[in-house]
Design brief:
The chain is mainly alpha-helical and about 475 residues long. It is about 75% helix and about 0% strand. The longest helix is centred in the first third of the chain and has 33 residues.
């Protein structure tokens, strides 16, 4: 037996002995949880409007290619690292650096993941609160017959009311904390087993309704007919960036979820399944949204306001609009919750591993700290709208606290984290250990994967990273 094989085998034995933390009960449980993390506001809110902004079908094709070449390989690597370390992102990277005799500074990658989850959830929770608020608006019939100005005033009024935003932000964070505090099986797994089927059911109902409209074929054509003349360089980079963002990569989530993954589960098959589920949800969201947009003569490239300003107009004009509007924003709340759970978990897992920190205490410390930072995002839309704390740096000129948090996480920490994940798994980790974890053998499949992980994925992420900096 070679020295590398002995090292890998010893590592595997150590892994099995070390796994005193809870495990997902099944492969399906992990798929639902990881899909819940990946399926969030990015699918229901962001994907439709960036597709609309970039010409539809051609953008979708490029996006699918980016998922295959960048998203799936880095997800496989991140889950694999998480399972091999078996602890929170920080301690997982420390363990792997020690086991493979790597530079101990690799644990900083774990810190980056924790920081990304912490910062993202602080403003994600505020947007989740918007969705809860809009469930109430839709159910009360507030959209019925409302004009564009009235819908705009409704959204502007929400953003301008700091106390209302704080209330919804608080409600959302409390819901997330109540799920996470119960632990892996009683909390997250049980919640995901309810929320994810509910999400799919609501989405299928909405797609079914959209299919009954006269404009469904137009929406279908918009999503899947490729017109590359409408696709710009910025559109390609947007597709690449979103493929990375939508799978929850580079933010410690898959490291944390991977640490709960049993050895018997295939990482490769599971990661591919999660990516397919995430993509299908994004496409179904488009199929649910665009026919309604076209049927009401609205603009598919309406930008971020597509969900909170354009769609309410459509719901206000259509028969049964209050019912379907309520379903849609309930869907948005569920998508936000499943992602938020995964963002809080890496923080709590790390706190829980520290001596004397129970899960309850860890959830309270992590959740309340994130909630407090979220207040800065709440104020960014009203009292602090003209407060630009980093205006002395050209890249942050004119940016509020919310804008800064969004920019730093989406454009800097996440791409850099994903790039380093690919480099660590592709170039530095024990190759035999990687091969054993992935259980692909040493044939063409494994060699192709390593080629993509070493060269194509890092190059693509580096391009996005540099482009965002410039």
């Amino acid at each position: 037996m070679s020295e590398a094989t002995q090292t890998a085998t010893a590592g595997t034995v150590a892994d099995d002995a070390r796994h005193d933390n809870p495990m997902w009960s099944s492969r399906l449980a992990f798929i639902l949880a990881a899909s819940g993390s990946a399926v969030g506001l990015g699918n229901i809110w962001k994907f439709p409007y960036i597709t609309g902004e970039n010409g539809g079908g051609a953008f979708v094709l490029v996006y699918l290619l980016c998922i295959a070449v960048v998203g799936i390989p880095i997800m496989i690597a991140e889950v694999m690292i998480g399972r091999r370390g078996g602890r929170s992102p920080i301690n997982t990277l420390r363990i792997i650096a020690d086991r493979d005799k790597l530079n101990p500074r690799w644990k900083l990658l774990g810190w980056m993941g924790i920081a990304a989850s912490f910062l993202i959830l602080s403003f994600y929770s505020v947007i989740g609160g918007w969705a809860i608020n809009y469930v109430g608006h839709a159910a009360s019939g507030a959209f019925a017959g409302a004009s564009s100005d009235a819908i705009g005033s409704m959204f502007g009024g929400l953003l301008g009311d700091a106390s209302s935003l704080l209330m919804w932000h608080t409600l959302f964070m409390v819901a997330v904390m109540m799920i996470v505090v119960r632990g892996l099986k009683s909390g997250m797994e049980r919640a995901i087993n309810i929320l994810m089927p509910a999400l799919f059911l609501l989405l299928l109902v909405l797609v079914g309704y959209a299919a009954s409209t006269d404009e469904f074929s137009k929406g279908l054509n918009f999503l899947f007919a490729a017109d590359f003349s409408k696709l710009t360089t910025e559109g390609v980079l947007s597709a690449l960036g979103h493929a990375f963002f939508t799978l929850s990569l580079g933010m410690g989530v898959m490291l944390a979820y991977g640490s709960y993954l049993p050895k018997r589960v295939s990482i490769v098959k599971t990661a591919v399944t999660v990516s397919v589920v995430d993509t299908v949800v994004a496409l179904l969201a488009g199929l649910a949204i665009f026919p309604l947009v076209f049927a009401n003569g609205l603009e598919p490239g309406a930008g971020p306001g597509l969900i909170f300003q354009t769609l309410p107009l459509a719901f206000g004009k259509m028969a049964g609009g209050s019912f379907f509007g309520t379903l849609f924003f309930a869907l948005l709340v569920i998508a936000a919750l499943t992602s938020a759970i995964s963002l809080l978990e890496p923080v709590v897992e790390w706190l829980e591993e520290q001596k004397g920190i129970s899960r309850l205490t860890g959830t309270l410390i992590g959740g309340v700290s994130i909630w407090l930072l979220g207040i800065a995002t709440v104020l960014s839309f009203n009292e602090w709208a003209e407060f630009h704390p980093l205006a002395f740096l050209p890249v942050f000129e004119g940016k509020t606290v919310f804008d800064i948090l969004d920019y730093v996480t989406a454009n800097l920490i996440m791409p850099l984290g994903g790039l380093l994940i690919a480099i660590l798994a592709g170039w530095f980790m024990n190759k035999q250990a990687v091969e054993n974890e992935l259980d692909m053998g040493n044939g063409i499949g494994f060699k192709s994967f390593m080629f993509v992980l070493r060269f194509l994925a890092p190059a693509a992420v580096a391009v996005v990273f540099i482009y965002n900096l410039l």
